[in-house]
Amino acid sequence: MHLSIRGGTTLSGTVPIAGAKNAVLPGCAASLLTDEPVIIHRVPRLRDVATIIAVISELGKDVEYRDDTIVIRHGAPLHSQAARRYVEQMRASFLVLGPILARLGRAIVPLPGGCTIGPRPVDYHLQGLSALGARVKDGMDRVVLTADELRGARFRLPYPSVGATEQLLMAAALASGETVIENPAREPEVFDLVSLLTQMGANIEADQDVFRVRGRTELGGGEHTVIPDRLEAGTYLIAGAITAGTVTVTDVRPDDLTAVVAALGESGVHVAVADDAITVDGNDRPRPITITTAPYPGFPTDLQPPLVALLARADGESVVRDTVFPTRFGYVAALNRMGAKIAVSTGAARITGVDGLTGTDLTAPDIRAGAALVLAALTADGESTITGVDQIDRGYTEIERKLQKLGAKIDRRD
Ligand code: UD1
Prior knowledge:
This protein has helices at residues 21-30, 47-58, 84-87, 97-104, 123-131, 162-173, 188-199, 230-242, 258-266, 304-311, 332-337, 367-379, 389-395, 399-405, and strands spanning 2-6, 12-16, 38-41, 61-66, 69-74, 106-110, 135-138, 142-146, 154-156, 178-182, 203-206, 210-214, 222-225, 246-250, 270-273, 277-281, 290-293, 317-322, 341-345, 348-352, 361-363, 383-387, 409-413. By secondary structure, the chain is α+β, with helices and mostly antiparallel strands. It has two domains: 2-18 and 228-413, UDP-n-acetylglucosamine1-carboxyvinyl-transferase, Chain (Alpha-beta prism); 21-225, UDP-n-acetylglucosamine1-carboxyvinyl-transferase, Chain (Alpha-beta prism). The protein has a four-stranded mixed sheet. A hairpin with a 3-residue loop joins strand 7 and strand 8. The protein is elongated and about 65 Å long. Residues 22, 25, 91-92, 120-125, 159, 161-164, 185, 189, 301-302, 324-325 line the site of uridine-diphosphate-N-acetylglucosamine.
């Protein structure tokens, strides 16, 4: 299967944004903390969502997925071991570790796979769970954790890791006593998990610098609508900008996209923000900018590849640094094959803007780099084919349908 894209069309119109993948995945893991039903609304149809459903189903949950709602009920007694074939496909599967450990006192989870964006260790997850009393056996390709009892503790994350913060929040919700997580991740998806856990009965005080969790012996069920996907929204805004078009994303929370709106504005794109919508109005060539990704509220690393694609055609030299995943520049070689002039050195891309790009055959290496190649193909002269579409499908619902509605010449072919 591949995407076939004829570039050069100016996009125009409105795109409704789906629920946030990165909020649904921890939400599904959180369902393991209880035998009561957990209902999640606004769930996007994505491969990663199918993967987490497979993971929790194998662990014993009974999952019903209808329209955009998943209902997760108690099925079989919870297993302590997660299936390798799913965990290898997606790093977020590792989030089941804390909940299984908290429920059963034992958890065996393979080391995760996922996007090929450089080394992504899980040491902070394991250090945090050890602080709560887990004993860690770290094998070659899996981790085995045991704990007679999880006990609340004070733990300072060496870095505000999204996954490690979520892992600790879930384990601490069922630990005895108080857990204090210092230097937590503050991404909107983390706060979305906090609101689901709170509904399930967890006692969490989440302010900006410290999260305090007072553990409970049991949690109940919950019903929750996830936040909009700021990364999908940002991608379509950049699609509008890169084609010098006018694109509105709707059903979004603009406050979650402040850094993205600022970056686009700085690059000369006209951006109008409404209550739950954002419109971009692009120029033929953006202005060059210098930008560094950072944990929220900084510019998101996930939108770094799409932004680099946009700046490939800027009128001058831009520098984009990625401090979150410094090696997330593997896709740059593909942009250069399209005629871009981008030099990558440690953790940064120096982009000399060019007049135009040329379509070619491309392969999507991971979700966001795949999206960046789609955007580059939309602005390129001639036709591009993009294979590896299953990577893009992990994070974008019906990308070709949404882009076609904006006027793009894009098809999915076998
Ligand atoms: C989540 C997002 C991903 C996003 C990333 C950063 C999900 C499902 N995925 O990934 O889309 O790009 O946040 O916003 O929500 N690190 C360690 N040791 C650890 C954990 C992390 O060294 O134990 C490092 C990572 O290698 C990376 C940085 O910390 O350099 C940030 O990673 P983290 O925030 O944990 O990302 P994920 O939760 O995997």
